[in-house]
Amino acid sequence: MAETLTFPITSSFKFTSSRPSNFHLDKRSLLQCRAEASSMVKEGAKEASENMVYPDLCVFDLDACLWDQEMFEMSEIPTKKVMGDLNGRGQGVTGVMSGHDKISLHAGALLALQDHHDGKHGGMKIAVASSADTPFAVQVGRKALTMLEVVPGVTVWELLLRDWDGKDVNQIGRTPPLSSDKSATHFPRLREVWRGGERGGGDG
In Å, how far from its chain's centre is CA 8? Predict the structure, then answer.
């Protein structure tokens, strides 16, 4: 069941096309207004973040969720890295090549992972659950996770293991005991791990 979150509004602006005949705003005043408005927006975002209620566990799917490719369509296990800017955090691995196809994190997924890396989600843990079609697709997905970086020097895989004291609890694939139905196998197993069970790993 989804929870509705209300964000506090710290300020509001009303724009109008009319202005007094003696209205004048020089460049310095305009820059000052922009700076003050930017400061208000940042403070409002900070306040909203501080008041946010996060779940105990956030589970990412892989294909068309965490990244922009379907693993069953990939031709090779990734080996080549593509370097680029990680949201202004420095240069890192922003893509990996599977043959001629590049696998990259979605912008929103990267930002969420960076916030988690920075400890902005309280005690929330993260994991992945994917019903990747074939064992080869599982290998491609797992390899990509170990290569793509969240911030320079920290891979998605390392961030996933950090929450679980180095243990691989991620549920990837559909080989038994997993299946094509994540709600019947992947999520219950993750729930059990979160509650203190010993299962984890999935295919590979």
Answer: 24
Tell me the pLDDT tens digit for each residue of 181-201. 999 999 999 999 988 844 444
- Decide: 128 and 121 in contact? Cβ < 8 Å: no
Q: Which two tokens stand for residue 37?
A: 């408005």
**Residue 134 to residue 164: CA distance in whole angstroms:** 26
- 80 φ, ψ to 5°? -90, 130
Q: Is the pLDDT of residue 10 over 60?
A: no
Q: Token pair 């593509």 is at which residue?
A: 82
The pLDDT assigned to 203 comes to 54
**Rounded alpha-carbon distances, angstroms, from residue 55 to 48, 124, 125, 199:** 16, 6, 8, 21
Give CA–CA dist 84/97, Å, rounded: 14
Residue closest to 62 by CA, chosen among 193, 184, 203, 162: 203
pTM, to two decimals: 0.73
> Residue 126's beta-bridge partner residues?
58
- Which pLDDT score is estimated for 29? 59
